[in-house]
Structures are given as structure tokens and as C-alpha cells.
Amino acid sequence: MTSQCNDNSDSFVKMPTIKFTKLFINGNFVDSISGKTFETIDPRTEEVITRVAEGDKEDIDLAVKAARKAFDHGPWPRLPGCERGRIMMKFADLIDEHAEELAALDTIDAGKLFGQGKSVGIPQAANNLRYYAGAADKIHGEVLKMSRELQAYTLREPIGVVGHIVPWNYPTTVFFAKVSPALAAGCTMVFKPAEQTPLSALYCAHLAKLAGIPDGVLNVVTGFGPTVGAAISSHMDIDAVSFTGSTEVGREIMQAAAKSNLKTLSLELGGKSPLIIFDDADLDKAAELALLGILYNKGEICVASSRVFVQEGIYDEIVKKLVEKAKDWTVGDPFDPKVRQGPQVDKKQFDRILSYIEHGKREGATLLTGGKPLGDKGYYIEPTIFTDVKEDMLIAKDEIFGPVMALMKFKTIDEAIKKANNTKYGLAAGIVTKDLDVANTVSRSIRAGIIWINCYFAFDQDCPLGGYKMSGFGKDFGLEALHKYLQVKSVVTPIYNSPWL
Questions:
Q1: Which of 2, 161, 284, 495 could form a disulfide with 67 if both were Cys (CB 3.0 to 4.6 A apart)?
Q2: Phi, psi of 127, rounded to the nearest 5 degrees
Q3: How far from 446 is each of 97, 408, 413, 436, CA to CA, in Å?
Q4: Of 218, 223, 241, 239, which Cα lies nearest the Cα of 26?
Q5: Average pLDDT, stretch 115-122?
Q6: Does this model's pTM top 0.90?
């Protein structure tokens, strides 16, 4: 059975002081117009951390007004790219200086592993900011070769005021995935963190001010999706929205954008990603990748390899290794350095995952290991593996967003490809094989935005991430992400008496 650590987190790290709980609009922390607040809950203890200002449509109007003024009349879009980059570099240095506090905020707010956040997650977020800081002075158009007596070129110009709406699973990481390229492009923005995890976004807004980002460029409005998120999506003075979250909410945002001002959208949505393990795979490596692919960040990750397909020749051996490794997977307080899996983000998600586990059992799948909550306090769930899963079962079709693996068998390459593509989603996929021809064939046959071969979760700031099908459109990371915050303008002038075109 999966072990659980119940040590007191106070022995591992100094708990963070909550410094910022108000809306951040036009460079200042302010109460919401209504004066209302809401609770943010620690998923380790189920206790209230603090109360945070609850924004509404009127607060979004103020934030958009500040962002519009900063874009239309402020210095940020008009600064040389190298100067924007210099300020962004300072911002990144401040993130590094406050890495421990930011990691701790994401731990108490989202249940994320503190050690991983401090040593990997927060430094990667800072490096993402540096990546786009380096790109800020390299935004180029093209000189065009016209077919008649015309001279033409293109300009890449910032798209304007951007609305960012993000999920709760990677608060600081996604903050910088959205904000960094938009800042580099010269945009101004209104950022809505998930209501479950508002604390680190407010702290980052404070650091942005210290770094010298002008007032109105970055605004953070905390609150709920049906109010704050809806106000951003339908606002007539927001030029673009970048959203990461569920396909269902993505559809609502798309409808709101269409009914308002046809704002540009980028939607990084749900996933039900396949990991395909072929007979020639190294068994230990394959089992480790399969377990990591579904248990990393307690399964609360859009690209989780929740469907694992194993070729029949090694299926039984992989099953044994998965059970062995799952038993050694430690669940507990995410401040404990020995722990590999913390609590789910909140009770709603906790109950949702447990309900899918019950669905799996009712539909006839075999519960190989796990399947139960852990402990008397906190939203902890055992690593869960189902075998004998059929493709029409809910646990094989729906994005569960938790530590639940659906394990299935296949015979041929063609069957593996067909099964992998048998989903409405297309965000990511993994392939484990020593055969380069197999890897090439399968990677080109799976309809997904990123394919990992003999690895998983191989993210990098230069590597675009985004979906096919109902996993959305538009990319985060890489120069693709920068370009979505820019629009192309063509400039044409006639030329006379030129010796050549």
C-alpha cells in the first residue's frame, strides 16, 4: 500500500507570511469595489489560509481602463525592446530572490511539492521570463518582394490589451508562461488567477512593480470564473484572451469572444494523453515514465499520460513493475522532502477524482492498486491504476485530472495508433521504444501538439506547447507564444523609375 508521511510541515520550512490579498490595479493594491472577499483553502489541512479580495465586472472595467491607458498612452509599448528586456531581466532576478516564498505560497495554496517548486519550478519560471526578455528586441517584420512597382514590408505590432485566465495546477509557472511573452511583445494585460490559487500571482504583481514595470501594464484581479473570467472574455476593450483550462470553459470563452468584439483567442485546453510502450522498451524505464506521467503533480497536469497502452509481449511484466513502484510512491505533506505526491487542490477536485474511481469499478475495470483517500485530514488520494480498461469507459475518455491511470493492451503498431487517436483531445503523447522507425511512424501518426519519445514532461521555454482537436489552439512557450501577442501589419508604397523591382 502507498505510504503516507504525516510529519508536521513546520519542521521542514518556515511558513510564508501572507502579504498581498487585494486586487492589483494600475500599480496599487486595492479592495474590490464591492468590498467582498473569499476564502482560499490549504489543501493539506482543509483550513482557511486567508481571505482574498473578490473582484467582479466593475473591477475588471477599472483594470481594463488602466491597461488601455498604459497601452494607448504609456511608455511600455513604446520602449525600445532592449529596455523592456532589461526591466524583465530585473523582474526575473526578483523572482529568483523570492523563490522560497513563491514556492511556499504555491504549496499551501495548490498542494504542490515545495522542494520541487523551490529548486525547479520557480527558477524555470524566472528563466522563462529571461527567454522572452531576450526576444523583446528581436521582433522583426519582413521586406516583401512585390510583383510590380511597389515597395512593401511587414511590421509586427503588439496586439493591445490582453486578458489572461489561468488554472490552479501550476500557479507561478502558468503566470509567467502567459505574462512573459505578452510583456516582451509590448502588450498590457489583466490577469485572472484561479480562485483556488490566487496568492502567488498577487506576490508576482508586487515584484513586477519593484522591477519597474509601469503602472497599468500588469493588473491582477482575483475572483471567480462566472464573474471575473466572464467579464474578461466579453469585454469590448480587451483585444486578446489567452486561456488555459478545461475544454468546457474554453468553449464559453470562445462564445463570449464571438459575441463581443471578436477578440483573438489562444486556448490550451484539456487532454487525455496516451503513453505507448512497445515490446522493445526498457521495462524499468518504461514503468518509471508511465508512473511519473500520471502521478507527477498528483495528476493535476493537462498533459498527464492518463491512458497507458502496453504491447502484449511485455504487458504482464509492466503491470508487476507498476504495482511495485506505486507502493513506494510516498504521499503526504508537500513540504516534506521525502514526499512525491501532495494533496489534490481542493475538495471539489478531490471528490471528482474519487467519483471517477467509483465509475471505473462500476464499469468493470480492475482496480490494480490504490483507489482510496489517504489520512483523516487533507485532500490526499492513493496512486490509482486500473487494468482491463475498455476504450468506452469514462476513465478512458474523460480528463480526470488526478492520479488515476487507465492501463490497456495492444498488439500492433496500427492498433496502438488507432487507440491513441481515439479521443476528442490532442494535447500530448509519449512513445517508449528503441526502434527509430517505430518512433518516427507513430510520432507522425498521432494527432497531438507535442510528442515525447523515450521521455515525458520534457518541457522547455523554446519548445511550443499547445493542442490539436478539442485540446484547443495557440501555443505557450517558444517564439510561437510571442507571436500570438503580435499582429502583422503590411506597409506598401509605390516606387517610381526604379531600375529593378
A1: 161
A2: -70, -30
A3: 42, 17, 11, 16
A4: 218
A5: 97
A6: yes
